[in-house]
Protein backbone atom coordinates (compact mmCIF):
# COMPACT_ATOMS: atom_id res chain seq x y z
CA UNK A 1 0.00 0.00 0.00
CA UNK A 2 1.35 3.40 -1.00
CA UNK A 3 1.25 6.27 1.48
CA UNK A 4 1.32 9.98 0.74
CA UNK A 5 1.94 12.76 3.25
CA UNK A 6 -0.01 15.97 3.74
CA UNK A 7 0.75 18.22 6.69
CA UNK A 8 -2.50 20.16 6.10
CA UNK A 9 -5.04 17.37 5.73
CA UNK A 10 -5.98 17.32 9.42
CA UNK A 11 -6.85 21.04 9.15
CA UNK A 12 -9.09 20.43 6.14
CA UNK A 13 -6.49 20.56 3.38
CA UNK A 14 -7.48 18.69 0.24
CA UNK A 15 -4.35 18.93 -1.91
CA UNK A 16 -0.98 17.16 -1.93
CA UNK A 17 2.08 19.39 -2.23
CA UNK A 18 3.98 19.56 -5.50
CA UNK A 19 6.53 16.85 -4.67
CA UNK A 20 3.91 14.37 -3.47
CA UNK A 21 1.61 15.26 -6.39
CA UNK A 22 4.33 14.68 -8.95
CA UNK A 23 5.16 11.31 -7.42
CA UNK A 24 1.47 10.36 -7.32
CA UNK A 25 0.71 11.25 -10.95
CA UNK A 26 3.98 11.07 -12.90
CA UNK A 27 5.63 8.14 -11.10
CA UNK A 28 2.75 6.01 -9.77
CA UNK A 29 0.36 6.94 -12.63
CA UNK A 30 -2.70 7.66 -10.53
CA UNK A 31 -5.75 9.30 -12.13
CA UNK A 32 -9.10 10.83 -11.20
CA UNK A 33 -11.22 8.37 -9.24
CA UNK A 34 -8.26 6.42 -7.83
CA UNK A 35 -8.12 5.75 -4.11
CA UNK A 36 -5.00 7.00 -2.30
CA UNK A 37 -3.90 6.78 1.33
CA UNK A 38 -2.69 9.96 3.00
CA UNK A 39 -1.09 10.36 6.45
CA UNK A 40 -0.98 13.60 8.39
CA UNK A 41 2.25 12.96 10.33
CA UNK A 42 0.37 12.87 13.66
CA UNK A 43 -1.00 9.32 13.53
CA UNK A 44 -4.03 9.64 11.27
CA UNK A 45 -4.50 7.78 7.99
CA UNK A 46 -7.01 9.17 5.49
CA UNK A 47 -8.45 7.07 2.67
CA UNK A 48 -9.13 9.50 -0.17
CA UNK A 49 -10.35 9.66 -3.75
CA UNK A 50 -8.54 11.79 -6.34
CA UNK A 51 -10.80 14.45 -7.87
CA UNK A 52 -8.11 16.36 -9.80
CA UNK A 53 -5.03 14.57 -11.11
CA UNK A 54 -2.91 17.69 -11.53
CA UNK A 55 0.76 16.74 -11.14
CA UNK A 56 1.44 20.03 -9.33
CA UNK A 57 -1.48 19.78 -6.92
CA UNK A 58 -3.43 16.55 -6.61
CA UNK A 59 -6.83 17.33 -5.13
CA UNK A 60 -8.73 14.68 -3.21
CA UNK A 61 -11.81 14.01 -1.13
CA UNK A 62 -11.52 12.22 2.21
CA UNK A 63 -13.69 9.10 2.36
CA UNK A 64 -12.56 7.53 5.65
CA UNK A 65 -10.06 8.09 8.46
CA UNK A 66 -8.14 5.68 10.69
CA UNK A 67 -6.68 6.74 14.05
CA UNK A 68 -3.27 5.69 15.41
CA UNK A 69 -2.21 4.13 12.15
CA UNK A 70 1.00 2.11 12.57
CA UNK A 71 1.38 3.32 16.15
CA UNK A 72 3.21 1.77 19.12
CA UNK A 73 2.13 1.63 22.75
CA UNK A 74 5.02 3.66 24.19
CA UNK A 75 6.60 7.07 23.72
CA UNK A 76 10.34 7.18 22.96
CA UNK A 77 12.52 10.28 22.77
CA UNK A 78 16.06 9.62 21.48
CA UNK A 79 18.66 12.32 22.18
CA UNK A 80 21.72 11.46 20.10
CA UNK A 81 25.01 13.23 19.40
CA UNK A 82 25.44 13.48 15.61
CA UNK A 83 28.56 11.59 14.40
CA UNK A 84 31.16 13.44 12.36
CA UNK A 85 29.90 11.56 9.30
CA UNK A 86 26.39 12.94 8.75
CA UNK A 87 25.30 9.85 6.78
CA UNK A 88 25.42 7.82 9.99
CA UNK A 89 22.91 10.06 11.73
CA UNK A 90 20.70 9.89 8.63
CA UNK A 91 20.84 6.08 8.82
CA UNK A 92 19.88 6.12 12.49
CA UNK A 93 16.96 8.49 11.87
CA UNK A 94 15.61 6.29 9.08
CA UNK A 95 15.89 2.99 10.94
CA UNK A 96 14.62 4.37 14.24
CA UNK A 97 11.53 5.66 12.45
CA UNK A 98 10.92 2.23 10.94
CA UNK A 99 11.19 0.57 14.37
CA UNK A 100 9.35 3.17 16.43
CA UNK A 101 10.52 6.54 17.78
CA UNK A 102 8.49 9.65 18.57
CA UNK A 103 11.04 12.40 19.01
CA UNK A 104 14.71 12.95 18.14
CA UNK A 105 17.01 15.60 19.59
CA UNK A 106 20.58 16.09 18.31
CA UNK A 107 23.06 16.68 21.15
CA UNK A 108 26.36 18.53 21.34
CA UNK A 109 28.59 17.30 24.18
CA UNK A 110 31.98 18.23 25.58
CA UNK A 111 33.66 15.65 23.34
CA UNK A 112 31.56 16.18 20.20
CA UNK A 113 33.58 16.38 17.00
CA UNK A 114 30.61 17.83 15.15
CA UNK A 115 29.25 21.17 16.34
CA UNK A 116 26.79 22.04 13.55
CA UNK A 117 23.57 20.21 12.70
CA UNK A 118 21.31 21.01 9.75
CA UNK A 119 18.01 19.21 9.98
CA UNK A 120 16.45 19.73 6.54
CA UNK A 121 17.72 16.48 5.04
CA UNK A 122 16.98 14.47 8.19
CA UNK A 123 13.44 15.87 8.18
CA UNK A 124 12.90 14.54 4.66
CA UNK A 125 14.33 11.17 5.67
CA UNK A 126 11.87 10.93 8.58
CA UNK A 127 8.91 11.56 6.26
CA UNK A 128 10.09 8.98 3.72
CA UNK A 129 10.82 6.37 6.41
CA UNK A 130 7.43 6.85 8.05
CA UNK A 131 5.67 6.37 4.72
CA UNK A 132 7.79 3.36 3.80
CA UNK A 133 7.17 1.64 7.14
CA UNK A 134 3.41 2.44 7.14
CA UNK A 135 3.29 4.84 10.07
CA UNK A 136 0.81 7.64 10.42
CA UNK A 137 3.06 9.62 12.76
CA UNK A 138 6.34 11.24 11.74
CA UNK A 139 8.91 11.64 14.54
CA UNK A 140 9.46 15.19 15.74
CA UNK A 141 12.97 16.47 15.00
CA UNK A 142 14.12 19.09 17.49
CA UNK A 143 16.79 21.75 17.22
CA UNK A 144 20.21 20.66 18.47
CA UNK A 145 21.02 21.46 22.11
CA UNK A 146 23.97 20.91 24.43
CA UNK A 147 24.07 17.91 26.71
CA UNK A 148 23.84 20.17 29.75
CA UNK A 149 20.78 21.97 28.36
CA UNK A 150 19.09 18.63 27.78
CA UNK A 151 19.98 17.20 31.18
CA UNK A 152 18.57 20.21 33.00
CA UNK A 153 15.37 20.48 30.96
CA UNK A 154 12.16 20.34 32.98
CA UNK A 155 10.32 18.48 30.20
CA UNK A 156 10.96 14.96 31.41
CA UNK A 157 9.37 14.82 34.85
CA UNK A 158 7.11 11.89 33.97
CA UNK A 159 9.61 10.03 31.78
CA UNK A 160 12.08 7.27 32.52
CA UNK A 161 15.35 9.11 31.93
CA UNK A 162 18.23 6.94 30.71
CA UNK A 163 21.77 7.87 29.67
CA UNK A 164 24.12 5.36 28.02
CA UNK A 165 27.72 5.46 29.23
CA UNK A 166 30.75 3.23 28.65
CA UNK A 167 33.00 3.97 31.63
CA UNK A 168 32.64 2.83 35.25
CA UNK A 169 30.27 4.67 37.57
CA UNK A 170 30.91 3.05 40.94
CA UNK A 171 32.92 6.10 42.04
CA UNK A 172 29.78 8.18 41.55
CA UNK A 173 27.88 5.98 44.00
CA UNK A 174 25.38 4.71 41.42
CA UNK A 175 24.68 1.46 39.59
CA UNK A 176 24.80 0.95 35.83
CA UNK A 177 21.75 -1.01 34.65
CA UNK A 178 21.48 -3.08 31.42
CA UNK A 179 19.33 -1.36 28.81
CA UNK A 180 16.80 -4.22 28.67
CA UNK A 181 16.17 -4.05 32.38
CA UNK A 182 16.12 -0.25 32.41
CA UNK A 183 13.31 0.06 29.85
CA UNK A 184 11.16 -2.76 31.21
CA UNK A 185 7.61 -1.67 32.01
CA UNK A 186 8.16 1.94 30.94
CA UNK A 187 5.80 3.68 28.52
CA UNK A 188 7.47 7.11 28.36
CA UNK A 189 11.22 6.88 27.85
CA UNK A 190 14.06 9.31 27.09
CA UNK A 191 17.46 7.87 26.12
CA UNK A 192 20.68 9.85 25.65
CA UNK A 193 23.56 8.67 23.44
CA UNK A 194 26.85 10.59 23.59
CA UNK A 195 29.43 11.55 20.94
CA UNK A 196 32.47 9.61 19.68
CA UNK A 197 34.35 10.30 22.92
CA UNK A 198 31.26 9.49 25.05
CA UNK A 199 29.94 11.86 27.68
CA UNK A 200 32.49 13.70 29.79
CA UNK A 201 32.79 12.87 33.46
CA UNK A 202 31.27 16.22 34.42
CA UNK A 203 28.29 15.59 32.13
CA UNK A 204 27.71 12.20 33.75
CA UNK A 205 28.01 13.75 37.20
CA UNK A 206 25.33 16.27 36.23
CA UNK A 207 23.14 13.45 34.89
CA UNK A 208 23.35 11.65 38.23
CA UNK A 209 22.50 14.85 40.10
CA UNK A 210 19.44 15.37 37.88
CA UNK A 211 18.11 11.85 38.40
CA UNK A 212 19.13 10.17 35.14
CA UNK A 213 19.71 6.39 35.27
CA UNK A 214 23.02 5.31 33.74
CA UNK A 215 22.61 2.28 31.47
CA UNK A 216 24.86 -0.22 29.73
CA UNK A 217 24.55 -1.58 26.19
CA UNK A 218 26.85 -4.54 26.84
CA UNK A 219 30.58 -5.11 26.52
CA UNK A 220 31.06 -4.17 22.86
CA UNK A 221 32.39 -0.72 21.94
CA UNK A 222 29.71 0.69 19.64
CA UNK A 223 29.48 3.53 17.16
CA UNK A 224 27.02 6.28 18.01
CA UNK A 225 24.38 5.19 15.51
CA UNK A 226 24.73 1.53 16.54
CA UNK A 227 24.24 2.39 20.20
CA UNK A 228 21.22 4.50 19.31
CA UNK A 229 19.71 1.69 17.26
CA UNK A 230 20.25 -0.92 19.98
CA UNK A 231 18.50 1.39 22.45
CA UNK A 232 15.59 2.00 20.08
CA UNK A 233 15.28 -1.72 19.38
CA UNK A 234 15.42 -2.59 23.09
CA UNK A 235 12.36 -0.43 23.78
CA UNK A 236 10.51 -1.89 20.78
CA UNK A 237 11.31 -5.50 21.67
CA UNK A 238 10.25 -5.05 25.30
CA UNK A 239 6.94 -3.62 24.06
CA UNK A 240 6.51 -6.79 21.98
CA UNK A 241 7.14 -9.00 25.00
CA UNK A 242 10.51 -10.21 23.72
Give an account of the 3D structure.
The chain is an alpha/beta fold. Helices cover 30% and strands 23% of the residues. It is built from seven helices and twelve strands. The chain has helices spanning 18-27, 86-99, 120-132, 147-151, 179-183, 201-209, 224-239; strands spanning 4-5, 35-39, 45-52, 59-66, 75-80, 103-108, 140-141, 145-146, 160-164, 177-178, 188-193, 213-216. The strands form two sheets. Strands 5, 6, 7, 8, 9, 10, 11 and 12 form an eight-stranded parallel sheet that branches. It has a four-stranded mixed sheet with strand order 1-2-3-4, with no helix packed on it. Helix 2 packs parallel to helix 3 and helix 2 runs parallel beside helix 7. It starts with a strand and ends with a helix. The mean pLDDT is 95.
Keywords:
242 residues, alpha/beta, Alpha/beta knot, 8-stranded parallel β-sheet, 30% helix
Helical coverage, percent range:
25-40%
Number of domains: 2
- The number of helical runs is 7
Can you write the helix and strand succession as a string?
A: EHEEEEHEHEEHEEHEHEH
Q: How is the CATH topology of the largest domain named?
A: Alpha/beta knot
N- and C-termini, Cα separation = 28 Å
CATH superfamily of the largest domain: SPOUT methyltransferase, trefoil knot domain
Cα gyration radius (Å) = 20 Å
Beta-strand percentage range = 15-25%
Q: Return the average pLDDT rounded to an integer.
A: 95
Top CATH class of the largest domain: Alpha Beta
Class of secondary structure makeup: alpha/beta
